Structure formats: C-alpha cells, structure tokens
Amino acid sequence: MRLLKEPLFHFFLIGAAIFIWFHIVSPDNVTVEDLGTITLSENDVALLAVQFETRWKRPPSDAELQALVNASIREEVLVREARKLGLDRGDSVIRSRLSQKMDFLTEAIATSVVPEDEDLDGFLQQNPERYATPNRVAFTQVFLGEKPSEVETEAALAALRAGQEVSDLKGSSLLPVSMPLTTTRVIDSVFGIGFSEGLATLEEGQWMGPVLSGYGVHLVQVLAIEPSRIPPLSEIHSAVLRDWRRTMSEDLAEAQYEILADNYEIITPDLSGRAK
C-alpha cells in the first residue's frame, strides 16, 4: 500500500509512540502519595554522570557525583514548591520554553525517519527554484571610458574583430579585463547592477557592444555561458535531505497541533468590529 510508504504516515506512527511514552513517564502522572517523595533512580544518576563526562571529558569523582545529585534534588524541590505557589502560571518565559520543547520533540521525530531517494527526488522536482544553480558567464571586456563617441566605439569594435590585442585598446580602469565563469550576481557586484543583463544579449565568441556598466561603456567578448540548471539528487543529496526534513517537521508539527487542539474546547472573544 502506498500509505505505508508515505513519510508523513511514518512520522505519525513514530510521533504517536513518542508522545504516548512521554505521557506515561510524565511527572504529572505521579499519584498524590508520590508528590511528597523525590526519587533519583540509578538511571538518573547514570545520566548525570554521562552529562558530566560529555562536558568535561572525564568521569566525575565520587564527590562531584554527589554534588550533582544534591543539585538535582535541590532543583526538583524548588521546582515543586514554585509550582505549588503557581509561579509557573502566567510566566511567558516558561510557557515559551515548554512550547519549544514540544517543537523540539517534533523535530526529533523528523530526524528519525530516513526517506527513500524517490521521496527526496520528488521533493527536488517540486522545489526546483531552491536548488537551481545561477547563470554563469565568462568574458573579456575593453573599457572605453564614460562617454566615448560613436565613432570611437565603432573603430574599437572593428579593431577587435580584426584581431587587435585587447591590451592595445584597454582604457584606464581597475576593472578586470577578463573573468572566468562567474555568477551574474558577482559580475554585477564588480561592474554594477544590470551589466550581466547586457551580457545575456550578446552572441558567444564575438566581440560586441557597446555594453553599459556602472562605470561607462564596454566592448565585450562572451567566452562561455553556463545556464542555470537543476543538479541531480546525487550532487545535492544532503541539502535536499535537510530541507525535506525541515518541511516534513513543519507539516508534522501542524498536523500534531491540530490533533492536540481537538482535545480542547477553545473559546475566544468575538474580535469583529475591533479594527479601527
């Protein structure tokens, strides 16, 4: 069945399992009798030791481990007392942090699913503009000055087409005489916005012009043009996978929210007529 191959369906299965597991182990599910007891299990202590070793690149000493246990107990005591006082309610920082944790959980689910190449290729075909390479142009140019006369321009163009060396005609300019295959964005950053558009109209291999830049007038010989293309999946696999997971994570987060929101009766005031 195609449904069983859908990545979002896999997300739902994994997501449901994780959310159920968190619901089961959530501290909010402890009985009333347990509220007065703080228990650190062997697994809790082992986790503290692992976190210490990850940070300091060595296992903790007995004294350091005891200090970690004491700090964990202190935190739990203060958190419980703060909740009794209602300090967690109405706190935008706490609410934002809890909301972020739910989003992080959804992202963790997304990274746990390994898509098939056909899924990634389909995503690539649906979003070609994300991965299209920019147009690139290689060319040689001669700068004729800010406002050369039409006669000067035609004479220089004829000389170049007759085989005269560029160095014999090059005007005074700090601009590069030639550029290898370069993106149009970079070309415009060097010669001024719009210069690359003028190159696009030129015949490859022939001296042509005039072409206007932000500095003046140029004669240009386009040497090569590499048009924009969509690379195959094999060339951009990691980028497509990253974007695919981000998109699937967003889709899952929205779908998960709608499912969770259905468990509540949501009442809001009538906002019609409030706009001024």
How would you sum up this structure, described in words?
The protein is an alpha+beta fold. The protein is 53% helix and 12% strand. The chain contains eleven helices and four strands; from the N terminus they run H-H-H-H-H-H-E-H-H-E-H-H-E-E-H. It has helices at residues 7-25, 42-56, 62-84, 92-112, 117-126, 128-131, 150-161, 166-169, 184-191, 195-200, 237-261, and strands at 136-145, 178-183, 207-212, 217-226. Strands 2-1-4-3 form a four-stranded antiparallel β-sheet. Strand 3 (207-212) and strand 4 form a beta hairpin. The longest helix is centred in the last third of the chain and has 25 residues, at 237-261. It is elongated, with a radius of gyration of 33 Å. It starts with 6 loop residues before the first helix and ends in a 15-residue tail after the last helix. 13% of the residues are buried. Residues 1-5 and 28-33 have low confidence and may be disordered.
What is the strand and helix layout of this fold?
Layout: H1 7-25, H2 42-56, H3 62-84, H4 92-112, H5 117-126, H6 128-131, E1 136-145, H7 150-161, H8 166-169, E2 178-183, H9 184-191, H10 195-200, E3 207-212, E4 217-226, H11 237-261
